[in-house]
Amino acid sequence: MKAWRLLIPTVILALAGCDGSGGPVGEDVVARAAGYDLSAQATAEILAPQPELPNQPEVVRAFADLWVQYFLLAQATAEDTTLMHLDVSPLVARQVEGEMVTQLRDVVIHVDTVIAEDELRRRYEAALPGGQLRARHILLQFPEGASDAQVDSVRSLATNLRDRIVAGEDFGEIARQFSADEGTAANGGDLGSFGRNDMVPAFSEAAFSLEVGEISEPVETTFGLHIIRVDERIVPSFEERRDAFRVQVQNQIVMEAESTYVAGIVEAAGLDEVEEDLEPVKQLAADPNMELSSRALSRALVDYNGGSYTLGEFRDWLLTGPVNLPSQLQAAPDGQIQNLLQSLARSELLVREAEKEGVEVSQARRDSIAADIITGVQGIAHQLGFTQITPEEGETIEAAADRVVRDILVQVVQEGREVYPLQAVAYALKEQYGARTHQPGVDRTVALVTEMRAQTPTGGAPAEPTPPADTTATDTAGDGTGG
Predict the structure, then answer these.
(1) Average pLDDT per run of 10 along the chain, which is 483 residues long?
(2) Would you state the pLDDT for residue 120?
(3) Beta strands at 190-194 and 132-140: parallel, antiparallel or unpaired
């Protein structure tokens, strides 16, 4: 369990059973943040005038979540523009864990990186770092849907052409006559210069194994059959690259030692394969803010001796990471997602190992990380105008924050104003203040938008948004103030 989890307020832990304020939630409430409600009516009046926006629950939920993010930041800024009261410990914890793993490497990885000159030269000549070849090729392609006889015919032609070249015929002339590579045939098959990673693996492996002037056997790739001749090797001299290559080799030695160490940790922990059912992971990637039961959050994705990597931890990772993480995961194939989950589980094991080794990140460093995060949040709050929020006569600070946020959201929806995604910061805000989206309110909004759009004549002017009073605070004090 991450240490920062112990800091989550009790009111947040209770969110699975009630809303942020403890008060009742009607079907008109789309979202509640820090005890303040966003109504279905107010939401519909902003969304309805934009007919190009699909009237779907997903759109309403995205709008509600943006309101939650902005409202919580606006309220936190209105309380104290320095934002020093903001609890960013979840974000600090993620960075601290990364630094612990880095420190663990320095504690446990001790390898001899002294390399003798002759050994360094041998490695250099084998690796050809930065080396390139200048080569020619003749490409013979198999007919689409080729029969066995046609395939054999192409192979026979490739062997025959190679024999003619070895016997002394001009490589370039045969390339001009027979090569199917229109881009190089006219130039005698000249490919110019290229590095190891510039060609498909089978081609590169064959080409880099040849001596200058040597002719390859027919090499098959996805493009067809190739006959290759190397005209020149272009390799920086050992003396020119010695120092840089020594550092490269030393880094490689350390990385190999790290891989061996991590493999040992993984083996000792008995890290299992990723659960085959990735649907919960994909659903979270599509909607990281979706509400899940405590049972769902504790679901193990990867088991290991003494613990597991859970769906809840995966959600925390999503919500405290870069804003584009969910969209990248939605487009990823299952194999990549499984590799990611294995990697996240390994990282958890390494953090646990770092703790066993007594690795610590000083409080001063933690404070520095938090200060950097706060500075970034202050910049966003300033850009959004939250540092100038001033309640009007008779207006609560919450109502003032909501008024400013709704004005911004009208500009976002109806005028295309830039959106500042607060993914990781929003996570910290929700943990500290409490927030929740309510499906009945989402459904009610969809129904209201349908009604409003049906009542608006084609090409007619949309209805004016209602005053901020339609978004009301929950009266938790029982005195009618709504605060």
Answers:
(1) 25 28 70 94 94 92 93 93 92 92 89 89 77 94 91 96 96 96 94 90 93 96 95 87 90 90 91 86 85 89 92 90 76 88 92 93 95 94 93 92 94 90 86 91 96 73 46 40 35
(2) 92
(3) antiparallel
pLDDT at 372: 94
The answer to whether residue 430 sits within a structural domain is no
Cβ partners under 8 Å of residue 420, min gap 6? 380, 383, 384
Q: Determine phi and psi for 30, rounding to 5 degrees.
A: -85, -45
CATH of the domain at 160: 3.10.50.40
- 122 assigned to some structural domain: no
16 closest CA partner among 322, 290, 337 = 290
pLDDT, residue 291, reads: 79
- Strand, helix or coil at 222? coil
Q: Considering its fold, how many domains does the chain have in total?
A: 2
Q: Mention every residue, 6+ apart, whose C-beta is less than 8 A from residue 457.
A: none
Residue where one domain finishes, among candidates 328, 360, 392: 360
Listing DSSP states for 116-134 in one string gives: -HHHHHHHHHHH-TT-EEE
Cα-Cα-Cα-Cα torsion 124, 126, 130, 132, nearest 10 degrees, comes to 140
Instruction: Give the separation between CA 29 and CA 40, rounded to whole angstroms.
Output: 6
Q: How far apart are CA 32 and CA 18, in angstroms?
A: 11
230/209 Cα distance (integer angstroms) = 10
CB atoms within 10 A of CB 336: 12
348 and 286, same domain (yes or no): yes
- Residue given tokens 């190739």 in the structure block: 226
Distance, CA of 423 to CA of 428 (rounded, Å): 9
What range defines the domain where residue 294 resides?
A: 94-111+262-360
